[in-house]
UniProtKB/TrEMBL annotation:
One Pfam family named in its UniProt record: QRPTase_N
The name this protein goes by in its record: Probable nicotinate-nucleotide pyrophosphorylase [carboxylating]
Organism listed in the record: Ammonifex degensii
Family: Belongs to the NadC/ModD family.
Lineage of the species this protein comes from: Bacteria, Bacillati, Bacillota, Clostridia, Thermoanaerobacterales
Summary of subunit composition and partner proteins: Hexamer formed by 3 homodimers.
Keywords linked to the UniProt accession: Glycosyltransferase, Pyridine nucleotide biosynthesis, Transferase
Length: 292
């Protein structure tokens, strides 16, 4: 996972643990002796794509640096219900106190990867690429965009700082697409591509005249998208966006667009059903070593 996520992952995990454990796990501290070690498995209960195993491992290691965590499937694997995703051995108090945070990350990221993989599968054989949006959970964008990549999708801009996208409200204030593009070209680095959101064929023509690099077709009917692609004729990349679902993504891709951005990849996914189950416990750590 090194290089795949931001350097802020430790801070994200620290905040999540502080939120859940606070001054101490009252139940675990009362019930579980400090000298007990446990072996646990992460078990998936439905078909899906796995993302976030390294995050779950880091959660447990934050609470017990000596925890042994072993992947039983690869990150990004497509798994069936009943598959053991990973096993861990460590102090029982650490495993139980970190259980919910580890599962929250693993379930959520796997849900995103699963949704992304389904959408990618639905447009196989067509030129379009599935990309995400900025419709992410505040504070978790790097993790969620990582999960999109694990699921086979691509990332749109990470934030307002690394890409130019002139939207309808920018155009209203600037007065026209032409003027908005001119202002961007004057101030933004020349290495950045300029994208403009359009909602009609007239706006597509205006964007082409302004010499933009990417034209977003926002909430356009499929027939209009097809005509817009014909109109652009390769002079710019074409991105379809707005109300993209598993039901309509194939039809959208068939219009010939280059990119399909879907907020649904991150803003409304269902978590994959994964549980953590203690399988053994002992005062002797050596009895619970995972098989190599």
């Amino acid at each position: 996972m090194a290089g795949e996520l931001s350097l802020g992952l430790n801070e994200i995990i620290e905040r999540a643990l502080q939120e859940d454990i606070g001054t101490g796990d009252l139940t675990t501290l009362s019930v579980v002796p400090a000298n007990i070690f446990a072996r646990c498995v992460f078990l998936v209960k439905e078909e899906g794509v796995v993302a976030g195993l390294p995050v779950a491992a880091r959660v447990l290691k934050r609470l017990d640096p000596e925890v042994e965590f072993r992947h039983r499937v690869k990150e990004g694997a497509r798994v069936a219900a009943g598959t053991v995703l990973a096993e861990a051995v460590g102090r029982a108090r650490a495993i139980l106190s970190g259980e919910r945070v580890a599962l929250n990350f693993l379930r959520h990221l796997s849900g995103i990867a699963t949704r992304t993989a389904r959408m990618v599968d639905l447009i196989k054989g067509l030129r379009a690429v599935v990309v995400d949006t900025r419709k992410t959970t505040p504070g978790l964008r790097a993790l969620e965009k990582y999960a999109v990549r694990v699921g086979g999708g691509k990332n749109h801009r990470f934030g307002l700082y690394d890409g130019v996208l002139i939207k309808d409200n920018h155009i209203r204030i600037a007065g026209s697409v032409k003027e908005a593009v001119r202002l961007v070209r004057e101030s933004a680095p020349h290495t950045l591509r300029v994208e403009v959101e359009t909602g009609s064929l007239a706006e597509v023509e205006e964007a082409l005249a302004a010499g933009v690099d990417i034209i977003m077709l926002d909430n356009m009917p499929v027939a209009m998208m097809r005509e817009a692609v014909r109109l652009v004729a390769g002079r710019a990349l074409v991105e379809a966006s707005g109300r993209i679902t598993e039901e309509n993504i194939r039809a959208v891709a068939a219009t010939g667009v280059d990119l399909i951005s879907a907020g649904a990849l991150t803003h409304s996914v269902s978590a994959l059903d994964i549980s953590l189950e203690i399988t053994e416990s002992s005062v002797d750590r050596g009895l619970l070593t995972l098989d190599r």
